[in-house]
Specification:
- This is 6-carboxy-5,6,7,8-tetrahydropterin synthase.
- One of its GO terms (molecular function) is metal ion binding.
- It catalyses: 7,8-dihydroneopterin 3'-triphosphate + H2O = 6-carboxy-5,6,7,8-tetrahydropterin + triphosphate + acetaldehyde + 2 H(+).
- By secondary structure, this protein is an alpha+beta fold.
- The chain has a single domain, classed as Tetrahydropterin Synthase, Chain A (2-Layer Sandwich), CATH 3.30.479.10.
- The protein is 28% helix and 32% strand.
- It contains three helices and five strands.
- The protein has a five-stranded mixed β-sheet.
- The chain is elongated.
Length: 125
């Protein structure tokens, strides 16, 4: 099963290594989708939605909401934000019955990125 939880936050950034309008300061209402892969536990759940919300809010959303993301990530592209989110969550969401499967970061309703961790690790080898 794939368990899905969506989050939203507003933040500003600028892409310092990009030449175009996005190198100027601007903001987005980001959508973050966190997906866990696993099997239901003895309570019939892959992961408790309340606990997942608390963890993601604490580890990611509270840091990014109404923030200047460049203070956290030097080149805050959707791709780099997704890698950051993955790294913040991968260990803390690991359970005997599930693991982090995928994160999605959407800058707009039509532009986003999906990251699955291990694919990035293969590219880096």
């Amino acid at each position: 099963m794939i368990l899905i939880k969506e989050f939203e936050f507003d933040a500003a950034h600028n892409l310092v290594k990009y030449h175009g309008k996005c190198e100027r300061l601007h903001g987005h209402t980001y959508k973050l989708v966190v997906k866990l892969e696993g099997t239901p536990d003895s309570e019939g759940m892959v992961f408790d939605f309340v606990e997942l919300k608390r963890i993601v809010k604490e580890k990611v959303v509270d840091k990014f909401d109404h923030a200047y993301i460049n203070d956290i990530i030097s080149q805050p592209t959707a791709e780099n934000i997704a890698v950051y989110v993955w790294n913040e969550l991968v260990e803390v969401l690991k359970r005997s019955n599930c693991r982090l499967y995928e994160v999605e970061v959407w800058e707009t309703k039509t532009s986003g990125v999906i990251y699955r961790g291990e694919a990035h690790e293969r590219l880096a080898e």
